[in-house]
Structures are given as structure tokens and as C-alpha cells.
Design goal:
Layout (H helix, E strand, L loop, with lengths): L4 E5 L2 E5 L2 H7 L7 E5 L2 E5 L6 H17 L4 E3 L2 E9 L4 E4 L4 E3 L2 E6 L4 E6 L6 E8 L10 E3 L3 E4 L4 H8 L63 H16 L2 H14 L4 H14 L2 H14 L4 H13 L3 H14 L4 H13 L3 H13 L3 H11 L6 H17 L3 H15 L3 H13 L3 H14 L4 H13 L3 H13 L3 H11 L4
Parallel strand pairs: 6-13
Antiparallel strand pairs: 1-2, 3-4, 5-6, 6-9, 7-8, 7-10, 10-11, 11-12
Helix pairs in contact: 4-5, 4-6, 5-6, 6-7, 6-8, 7-8, 8-9, 8-10, 9-10, 10-11, 11-12, 13-14, 13-15, 14-15, 15-16, 15-17, 16-17, 17-18, 18-19
């Protein structure tokens, strides 16, 4: 079977598996013009004399003359020819390799790649190269598809404006202190330093991790309006998404695609429906088409990432979801999607962090997914922190150092940057003579809040226990000037020992 070749019409790629398909791609050439090239004969029939198609025809001949039709694979790498009209464009792959067209990129065959083609005065174009797993039984090597990139560049919007603009001049538009113990302090959660606001209750949507339906994406700059009938069928597919009628989503989206194959929304809808129905390869294909039509459609990357994760292709899933977040860093649904992927990988803390980020962005499904894993909503966390810190204060008064450490560690797990929890835990570590851990927690508390007096007082106590009396006095003085009376008494207590 011959290696596939690839051709473009406008800026879309088509796979050509046979001479007959190749012939069908070359539209608008003069009737029954036959071209011989290296013992390969191709026939093109005329259907209207389209000059763009004629240019495309010669672009294809250029590619064939420059590279032939063989696929060149060197072990774990493959040479990918890149030809553009006009030539002289920069083709850059995600691994940093770049060349000036016509040229060839040598890329690894064990992962997918994105090649971005740019030239001054022209719209940039991105193309996805997907790796195909080898057949271990036959000994075949992995390969990348498409095996050749042939791109006809379009003038940028600015250049088109210059060409069509009329000649003539232009106008430029321009914490309260608590009972003492061994010269250190704890504070409760009710101090002004650590008051928190309760978050609004989460929307009750679902109890299991999943993705919502596709989010409408902005059209690509310079993109044309879809066919009205295709838009009508695409709306039907979106309405069926809300009903979770996946079979009907697939049917209506397929009708829209048949009317207007360049319309990205129905591909996105159908790709998600395929995922929900378990047709993973079909889902990946539709999401890849979305990305081909609009490389800045983050939802296409997000849904493909989830499907990759379902297939066990972890590296591909994480790469795609990072691209999606890069394109839409405030997208709650994308955070939720990454949480789903992390949960499938058994990375609980990472998944919880992403679900909480989605919930904080008022995405109800993220809140529900968080509760399904943690047993409570993110909105419950502030009240839990108040209770845990109050309990740590009570345990501190009972000299239950392990209890204090346990309660404060839970606060840190839930809240991360809580200066009170670090300072209280430092005091417990210091009383257990775990001075390294105590010093580390004091530094963390000071970094979180440089104006939190208790952190300096407790660090002073750690230094005092370490024999660094002068440094301890300095910390006590700092806390005293911040208004912590007990620190002032520590200064007086040690004042005679530093003379």
C-alpha cells in the first residue's frame, strides 16, 4: 500500500490514500489535464477554472518535485516535509525545531507535534501531527501523520486591508494573644488576621467527575460565517447536549458537518458525544478536526485530553490539557477537565486543587466533583479552618503537641497559605524540640504574612532554644514593636543575658 500523501485546499488538510483521491482533490484545473511525475500519472478534471486551485496544483507539484512521495523514518524520528505557497515561511515545531520552507523537520515518532507556519504579511497556520502506534507483530515502526504538510497561506487582515483600502491620507487611531506556654503563643481562628469569608453554596449538578458540554468559542480572526442551515443543525446538536441525548447530538451535528465541513462547532459537539458514548477514536478525530479548523479552540484540546486519558495515553492527555489552559487560563470547565484527568491518574491532591479552582470560578460541576472526592464542598473549608484552629489552641493549652501538629497540618492541607497554622505548628514542634521543623514553619508563616507578630515571637523562641540568644532577642523585639505584649516580656527576660 502506498504511503499517504497530503494536500490542502485553502488551509485545510486532506489525506490522500490513492491516485484517484489525489485526482479528486485537484479542482479547477483545465479539463483532463494529465501530469506525469516520476512514473506516476495523475489526471485532474476542470470544474470552473479556480485560480486558487491552479496555484494549489502547482504547489503540490513543487512538493512532489522537492521530496518525492517516500516517507523517511530513521528509527525513532521521521522527516516531515513542509511546503508553503508562498515559500520562505518559518515552520516551527513544538520541540523548538524550525526551518524555512520548502524544508523538512525531523521529529520524534513517539509523540504528537504541533507545527506552526508563519510569514510576515500572512496569517499564521498551526498543524497537528499525530503519531500512529506501531504494530508489534509486524515489526512496523511508529509514524507521524500527516506525513507531509502542504499549506497555502492567506494574506493577513492588515495586508488585505491595505490591498482594498482607497488611496489617500490615513488617520491613526491610537491575632489576639492566647494563654502562654514556654514563652511562645498560639492564636485562634477568630483573630482579625485569619478571618475568612464563606463562599456561596455550590450548585448541585452531579456527583461523579465528568465534563460539561462544549462551551461556545469565538470565531477565528477573519473566519467566515457558517452556512445558515449548518448553523441551524449545529444549534439542534447543542440543544441535545443540554438534554444529554448523545445519539441525537451525533445525528444533528453530522448533518451540520455535511452541509458545512468547515464549521467547527458541530465537530466539537459530536466529539464530546462520541466520548460519552465510548467511541474514543471517533472523539479524538473530531476534536483534532476542531483544532485543525481553529488552533485556538481550547475546548477541542480539553475534550481530546479527556479522551486520551480514557485511552490511557497519559502524556498526550496532560499535554493537551496544558495547551487548553494556556489558551483559556480562566476556563472553569478546563480546570474541571484537568481535575478529571488527575483523578483518573490517582493524583488526588492535584485533582482536588483543580476541582476547587473550577468551583472558585463558580463552576458547579467542579464543586460537586470536589465533594465527591473530599466529602465536603470547598465552601465548607472556611468554617472547617475556624474549628481546626480553635481546636489547636485548646490542645496547645493542654500541651498536646501531637494534637496541635495534627490539627494545624490539616489546616495547611486545606488552605495552604495560612500563617496562623504554620505559627501554631511551629510552637508545637519547638516544644517537642523538633527545632528544624519549627524553624521551617516560622519561615513559612513570615513569608505568607510578614506582619504577623506571632511568627517572629515563635521564631525567637526556636533561636533561644538553639543557643542563638542575640538573634532570639532581635525576633522578640520585632514582635514587640508589632504590638505583641508577651514578646515584650521576652525581651526584658533576656535583656540581661545579652550584655
Amino acid at each position: 500500500m502506498p504511503h499517504p500523501m497530503f494536500a490542502t485546499e485553502g488551509i485545510r488538510l486532506y489525506t490522500i490514500e490513492s491516485r484517484e483521491e489525489y485526482v479528486q482533490t485537484l479542482r479547477g484545473i483545465s479539463s483532463h489535464k494529465t501530469v506525469h511525475h516520476r512514473n506516476r500519472r495523475f489526471t485532474a478534471t476542470r470544474s470552473g477554472g479556480d485560480m486558487k486551485s491552479i496555484a494549489l496544483f502547482f504547489l503540490l507539484l513543487t512538493a512532489m518535485s522537492f521530496y518525492g512521495c517516500a516517507t523517511v523514518i530513521h528509527g525513532a524520528t521521521q522527516d516531515i516535509p513542509v511546503v508553503t505557497d508562498p515559500p520562505g515561511a518559518t515552520a516551527k515545531a513544538t520541540n523548538g525545531h524550525a526551518c524555512t520552507t520548502p524544508c523538512s523537520l525531523t521529529l520524534q515518532t513517539k509523540t504528537n507535534h504541533v507545527v506552526t507556519i508563519s510569514k510576515a504579511g500572512y496569517e499564521s497556520v498551526s498543524r497537528q501531527l499525530n503519531f500512529v502506534l506501531n504494530d508489534a507483530a509486524s515489526g512496523a515502526q511508529n509514524r507521524l501523520v500527516p506525513e507531509m504538510l502542504i499549506v497555502q497561506l492567506s494574506l493577513s487582515q492588515a495586508e488585505r486591508s491595505v490591498e482594498t483600502a482607497p488611496k489617500g491620507p490615513s488617520k491613526e487611531i491610537k491575632a489576639a494573644v492566647q494563654p502562654e506556654e514556654n514563652n511562645i503563643r498560639t492564636v485562634s481562628a477568630n483573630s482579625e488576621k485569619d478571618k475568612v469569608q464563606n463562599e456561596p453554596p455550590a450548585e448541585n449538578i452531579a456527583l461523579q467527575p465528568q465534563l460539561s458540554g462544549p462551551v461556545p468559542m469565538p470565531k477565528t480572526e477573519g473566519g467566515k460565517e457558517p452556512d445558515p442551515k449548518a448553523a441551524e443543525w449545529a444549534k439542534k446538536s447543542t440543544d441535545n447536549l443540554d438534554k444529554q441525548d448523545w445519539s441525537e447530538v451525533i445525528r444533528t451535528a453530522s448533518v451540520a458537518i455535511s452541509i458545512d465541513p468547515s464549521f467547527e462547532e458541530p465537530y466539537l459537539n459530536r466529539g464530546f458525544a462520541y466520548y460519552k458514548k465510548g467511541f474514543l477514536d471517533e472523539s479524538i478525530s473530531d476534536c483534532s478536526k476542531v483544532i485543525e479548523l481553529n488552533p485556538r479552540n481550547g475546548a477541542g484540546y480539553s475534550y481530546r485530553a479527556l479522551t486520551y486519558a480514557q485511552k490511557g495515553l497519559t502524556d498526550h492527555a496532560l499535554r493537551d490539557i496544558e495547551i487548553a489552559l494556556g489558551l483559556q487560563p480562566r476556563s472553569a470547565s478546563t480546570f474541571n477537565s484537568r481535575g478529571v484527568i488527575y483523578q483518573k491518574l490517582g493524583k488526588k491532591q492535584e485533582a482536588l486543587s483543580d476541582y476547587r479552582a473550577a468551583c472558585d470560578l463558580k463552576y458547579g460541576l467542579g464543586c460537586e466533583n470536589y465533594k465527591a472526592m473530599a466529602g465536603f464542598y470547598p465552601a465548607d473549608i472556611p468554617k472547617m479552618i475556624v474549628q481546626l484552629l480553635d481546636e489547636s489552641k485548646e490542645l496547645f493549652g493542654k500541651a498536646d503537641w501531637d494534637g496541635v501538629i495534627r490539627k494545624c497540618s490539616r489546616v495547611i492541607e486545606l488552605a495552604g497559605s495560612n500563617a496562623t497554622a504554620y505559627a501554631n505548628r511551629a510552637g508545637a514542634y519547638a516544644n517537642k524540640k523538633m527545632l528544624y521543623e519549627a524553624s521551617r514553619d516560622c519561615e513559612a508563616a513570615i513569608k505568607i504574612d510578614p506582619n504577623f507578630a506571632l511568627s517572629y515571637n515563635n521564631r525567637g523562641y526556636v533561636r533561644e532554644l538553639s543557643g542563638w540568644v542575640k538573634q532570639a532577642v532581635l525576633d522578640y523585639e520585632t514582635a514587640c514593636k508589632m504590638g505583641l505584649d508577651f514578646a515584650c516580656r521576652n525581651v526584658k527576660r533576656l535583656s540581661g543575658t545579652t550584655k
